[in-house]
């Protein structure tokens, strides 16, 4: 009768040991000596000197590495894609905007998945650029607009947002307006397109009830070792949203945005789909914009143990062995070149390693230079709240891990220079 107890104790001890082994590091003196992988040297030692060589040789092999060993490969194509306009109104956001709510349906292997896209567009413009980004708890949380539909998908419980029993209700409407400066976007001539990420793939270590399950072969219950984790699934969902947006005549360009884990998804979506006119990473940290080899803040081992469903299983081979990585996150950022990219950090968000995010942007600037685009020209971290707004832009702001009005003010001013 005691055997199950011993097994439970053994599993608990193993979990505690893993977390102890992969504790985050907040001490710069403990950052190991490491070599930043060269963007301009292929894996077989060939030197790259021109943008054409980058596109023909170096970029494809880096994209393949991240696909096979970090985020995971999408195992096939959809059988069908469709969308339906659920609702629209021309008097939203204090009469300044048009609102659309669109249901997007993905079909594969006689299975289907639906998610809703909420779209606000400025009135008086035949077409407008939009920011596209996932939200964490439902489209209804980003606005007080009573017409926005409440998601019925699984939702992580959050006492502050009044979400319990893994279900969103009217009580959570407008609880995250602080992260979405919708009226500022509209006033500047931009629209917003947003999706609840849990409708695409619920954020839990369970691959049975999201996008992955559409692609399973008979008897399959989880992705294969080099197949996609949740970050790649969320990126896939963003690309499906783009399939709709590029065919909406009211939209001119799409700039993809993501915060934290959704910043990781935005970067991967931007790297794998050049239809996105620009990419914004807000506090994306480990597995996003931050250099993994620095082993500062959250590390590869820590993120894989805390969130085992985010990445491909193949990424686990680098747990505690970041020095063995043949590529690093500055090379992910470089995959977005020459399209505009904005990387942002927060001074109190040491978990996401602001210095590592900045250095990745600095090193990625080499590829932007190949295209004659301006990036980050110094490896010295800029002053807090003093943005560098080139084609490859960066800021580190006051405060912690969040999205604030300051962030959106910078993104809007940067995008206006580039896209309006």
State the gist of this model.
It comes from Pelagihabitans pacificus. The chain is α/β, with parallel strands linked by helices and 420 residues long. Helix content is 29%, strand content 18%.
What would the keywords be for this entry?
alpha/beta, Rossmann fold, 9-stranded mixed β-sheet, 18% strand
Q: Order of strands across the biggest sheet?
A: 1-2-3-5-4-6-7-8-9
CATH superfamily: Alpha/Beta hydrolase fold, catalytic domain
Largest sheet: 9 strands, mixed
Overall average pLDDT: 95
Strand content: 15-25%
Which fold does the CATH topology refer to? Rossmann fold
Total of DSSP H or I helical runs spanning 4+ residues:
10
Round the Cα radius of gyration to an integer and report it.
21 Å
CATH architecture title: 3-Layer(aba) Sandwich
Number of strands: 9
Structural class: alpha/beta
Describe the structure.
This protein is α/β, with parallel strands linked by helices and 420 residues long. The protein has a single domain (68-419), classed as Rossmann fold. The protein contains 10 helices and 9 strands. The protein has helices spanning 3-21, 51-71, 182-187, 197-200, 230-245, 261-272, 300-306, 329-334, 354-370, 405-419, and strands at 80-92, 97-108, 111-122, 128-135, 191-196, 251-259, 278-282, 341-346, 392-397. Strands 1-2-3-5-4-6-7-8-9 form a 9-stranded mixed β-sheet, sandwiched between helices. Helix 1 (3-21) packs antiparallel against helix 7. It is globular, with a radius of gyration of 21 Å. GO terms for molecular function: carboxylic ester hydrolase activity. It comes from Pelagihabitans pacificus. Residues 225-372 form the 4-O-methyl-glucuronoyl methylesterase-like domain.
């Amino acid at each position: 009768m005691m055997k199950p107890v011993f097994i439970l104790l053994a599993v608990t001890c193993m979990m505690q040991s893993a977390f102890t082994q992969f504790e985050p590091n907040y001490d710069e003196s403990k950052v190991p000596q490491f070599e930043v992988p060269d963007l301009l040297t292929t894996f077989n030692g060939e030197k790259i000197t021109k943008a054409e060589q980058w596109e023909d040789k170096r970029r494809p092999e880096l994209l393949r590495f991240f696909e096979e060993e970090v985020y995971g490969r999408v195992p096939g194509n959809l059988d069908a894609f469709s969308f339906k306009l659920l609702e629209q109104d021309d008097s939203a956001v204090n009469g300044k905007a048009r609102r659309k709510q669109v249901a997007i349906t993905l079909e594969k292997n006689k299975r289907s998945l639906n998610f809703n896209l909420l779209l606000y567009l400025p009135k008086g413009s035949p077409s407008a650029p939009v920011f596209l980004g996932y939200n964490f708890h439902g489209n209804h949380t980003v606005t007080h607009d009573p017409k926005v539909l409440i998601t019925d998908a699984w939702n992580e419980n959050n006492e502050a947002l009044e979400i319990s029993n893994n279900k969103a209700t009217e009580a959570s409407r407008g609880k995250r307006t602080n992260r979405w400066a919708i009226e500022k976007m509209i006033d500047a001539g931009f629209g917003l397109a947003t999706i609840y990420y849990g409708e695409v793939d619920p954020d839990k270590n369970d691959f049975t009830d999201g996008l992955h399950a559409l692609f399973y072969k008979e008897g399959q219950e989880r992705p294969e070792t080099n197949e996609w984790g949740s970050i790649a699934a969320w990126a896939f969902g963003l690309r499906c949203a783009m399939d709709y947006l590029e065919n909406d005549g009211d939209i001119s360009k799409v700039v993809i945005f993501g915060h934290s884990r959704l910043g990781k998804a935005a970067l991967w979506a931007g790297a794998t789909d050049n239809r996105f006119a620009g990419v914004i990473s807000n506090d994306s940290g480990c597995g996003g914009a931050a250099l993994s080899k620095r082993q500062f803040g959250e590390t590869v081992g820590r993120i894989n143990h805390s969130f085992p469903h985010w990445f491909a299983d193949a990424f686990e081979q680098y747990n505690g062995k970041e020095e063995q990585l043949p590529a690093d996150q500055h090379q992910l950022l470089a995959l977005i070149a020459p399209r505009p990219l904005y990387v942002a950090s927060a001074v109190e968000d040491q978990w996401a390693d602001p210095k590592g995010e900045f250095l990745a942007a600095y090193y990625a600037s080499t590829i932007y230079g190949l295209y004659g685009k301006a990036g980050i020209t110094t490896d010295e971290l800029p002053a807090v709240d003093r943005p560098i707004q080139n084609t490859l832009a960066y800021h580190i702001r006051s405060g912690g891990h969040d999205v604030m009005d300051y962030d959106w003010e910078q993104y809007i001013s940067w995008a206006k220079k580039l896209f309006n």
